[in-house]
Structure prediction request, 200 residues.
Amino acid sequence: TCEAEAARAAMGGSASLLPREALSEFQELTFLSKQEILLAYKRFSALLPKEERVAVCSARVPKSQILTLPELRANPFQHRICHVFSTSEDGDDSMSFEDFLDMLSVFSDSATSDIKSHYAFRIFDFDDDGTLDRKDLEKLVNCLTGQGEESRLSNAEMEQLIRNILEESDIDKDGTINLSEFQHVISRSPDFASSFKIVL
Prediction:
């Protein structure tokens, strides 16, 4: 995989190309084509300082750099997206090249609606407890409507909206939405996959 990249760089070879073995492996593990993976590699490399570009596969890009990507810059869920796709053990939401590929793979048109809904659920689960409760739903609505005073819902409007969401989605009536309930609602909404591109 990426060990070949480091060895080739040490021998003075071009570090701007992804090793063929790694490319094949990434193709098997993602919904991305070879061209999309190579483009992702180039984009990820460009986010790194020049001296770190010799070992792209072992480098991590800080969250602040990831957030400069046009796809995330204006996304209301940008911080949650970085959090969900980051494998950083430091909790800084930095991304490795594999994290970056996973994110792009889920964003891609080729990703299944099950995969998309799974990640949407994780992004909307602000407290990472495995359910969407009232607090998660309130944060979700605030992200979608904007944080400005003029767009913020009144307490009564928020309460009514959350009640409607739970009524529609909370099949076991426990006051929260679990992943299977979320996926059930999504499966009845054929527009979900296309609207999900806005979120992701």
In short: The chain has two domains: 20-107, 113-196.
